[in-house]
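Hi all, a correction to my earlier message: I attached the wrong file for F-box domain-containing protein. Here's the right sequence:
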Amino acid sequence: MELTRKRSFTDFDRPAHDFRREFKGSVLEKKFAKKQSNKQNVLRLVLDWVLSRGAQQLQKKKQQQSTSTSPFDSIPNEVLYEILNFVNDHSSILSCRAVNRRFHALVDRGYHSDKMPLQLSRLIISGLPRGRGAEMRWIAYETQQTKTISIAQAAIRKPQNFQFNFKRFVIHRLILKDINLTDDFICFLRLQLSSADLSQLSQLTLSKVDFLNANSLTLHCLLAVVGKNLENFEVHDCYNMRPDSITDAHLIQLNAARIRRISIDGVKLCRMGNSLRIGDESLQHFASLKSFPAILLDRCIVTTNTVCDYTQEWFDSVDEGEKRLRSQVVTVKRCVHVKGSAFEAECRKRGLSCRNRRGSGSLTLYNVHEENTHRVFTVALAAALMQENQENDEKPVEILTNKETIPTK
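and the right structure:
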């Protein structure tokens, strides 16, 4: 008896039975097709209803806009702003918000400058890449508002007046950052600031400003507008500067009765070895008016005797109460005419006790005392590189900042 093995696999040589041929045209196919068509019809109906509903609502909005359009609606916001300026009653202006949404937005945003001025904590003006213009950004901490606008270079060359905006501004701090300082830009800025309220302006900061296309009169024109109100004048990390970019004449423009701090640091001149023309005249001017702001001078031409005179005048002029409340610091960095050893010797000649102490790194502070008193006047000196090579006993110093350090040998 022979045993045959059962074939577990189908014979692929034979043509397989195709059930799809039997399904086509059968009752099952017709029944399933009806169910599928019903589902598709329902989805199409829902989609058509949604689209038609949206089209109807859009058409209604267009009709409402077309019917409500009037010549009054085409009036620009600036004209409405001028109209609101004729209203003298503050309560009446607030009642104008009930007219429509547009009036409500105008009143809330403070377009009526004379009635509801906008307190700008900071007005920051920075340059756009490739000299394409400038960017203005104003920040109001009180109302938690901020806004940025870009100004084309053509609008700066032929100054356009943004009086409708600046007329309602009360500026507290003005910051110029990463911008090319030119006469055209200063004329444009003066035109805008002429409409603003500068009575509260307390700070002017120039940070990373390019002085290549500026001359001595460029900064002079700006300080002529804002200098009388400043309490803090800062020039940090500016480059392409010349000796006449900032001089004694510029610092004398500041109001000695209000100025509290002058900081000129991180100066980068076009030529190595040059210094800014800020010398003894500035310190003598403030000392003669009994004004002693905290001063930081970098790469200037002040002398050792003038720094000692400024210190002596502070001890002789400032009353006892102010000396206890306000610490006084004068910093002279990389000025070739000021030497630490000469400063100590000059203080001893004047009967002042001078003690130096080293801080972290190369920091050295000179604490100047009067005899038998606890009043202290702090002077920080930083030697220039040429001075360090000539005198080995000179101590390189850096003021209380991390902007730039002088390497020691």
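Sorry for the mix-up. The longest helix spans residues 27-68.
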